[in-house]
Amino acid sequence: MKIKKENTTSKKSIKNIVKNKQTILKPRARVNLDKAVKNVKNILKEKRSQAEVTEKKEVNLRKPRVKQFKAQKSENKGIVYVGHIPHGFYEEQMKDYFQQFGKVLRVRVARSQKTGRSRGYGYVEFAYPEVAKIAADTMNNYLMCGRLLKVTYIPPEKQHFGFFSGANWSEDEYPKLKNRRKATLGRNRLQSAENHKKYVKRSLRKLSTLESKLKEKGISIKFQPIDVPET
């Protein structure tokens, strides 16, 4: 029997070639992995920076813009604060009234941003501070339409342009005020005889429903309307 000898040299050479290939491929694979990791890190950094920029923009949009008023440099003008203003004593009326003391330059009544109604206080600017002091002394604690006016002189150190920021206002800026005035004009205008009869019928129905509700609760009351037209 002949025994075949295995070629050990060929096997060894194949193993050496494989090892050499592995040693050649390993550093290249590591380099590729490092590059991929760096690329991923750079992409994540860019996304984070973009997200931070968008968050800052959203925060800036949400924050209300506060007007910063500079101090008033001119000391030749006198400003007066007027508080507890009664209903109906607004810009035109205040200007006409305070002109008895001296020349009035500007008048502003503080109003609500939503409804346009008066907040009960305002500012009056005179041409001279001496006139403003006299007006404040005479009009402070003055009874007008059931209210005591609180009038104080504002010294030049505490004056700023924000006192008259909303002086030139209009009804177009306050749609609720405009609609309310339209409704009041519609109610107060002259009605025809037919419309007045319809209005009386509606009011009588409301009174009858109210009487029935009170009867259910054990209260018997009959409302007697006045000046009901004959049908």
Molecular structure report:
Residues 78-156 form the RRM domain. One of its GO terms (molecular function) is RNA binding. It is found in: Nucleus, Nucleolus. With 231 residues, the protein is of the alpha+beta class. Among the domains are: 78-164, RRM (RNA recognition motif) domain (Alpha-Beta Plaits, 2-Layer Sandwich); 193-225. The chain is built from five helices and five strands; from the N terminus they run αβαββαββαα. A five-stranded antiparallel β-sheet has the order 2-3-1-5-4, covered by helices on one side. Strand 4 and strand 5 (147-154) form a beta hairpin. The longest helix has 55 residues, at 8-62. The radius of gyration is 43 Å and the shape is flat.
SSE layout:
Blueprint: H1 8-62, E1 78-83, H2 91-98, E2 104-111, E3 118-126, H3 129-139, E4 142-144, E5 147-154, H4 175-188, H5 193-216
Antiparallel strand pairs: 1-3, 1-5, 2-3, 4-5
Mean pLDDT level:
77
Q: Helix/strand/pairing class, anyone?
A: alpha+beta
Strand content: 5-15%
Rounded radius of gyration (Å): 43 Å
Instruction: Count the beta strands.
Output: 5
Q: What is this structure, in a nutshell?
A:
With 231 residues, the chain is α+β, with helices and mostly antiparallel strands. 48% of the residues lie in helices and 15% in strands. It has helices at 8-62, 91-98, 129-139, 175-188, 193-216; strands at residues 78-83, 104-111, 118-126, 142-144, 147-154.
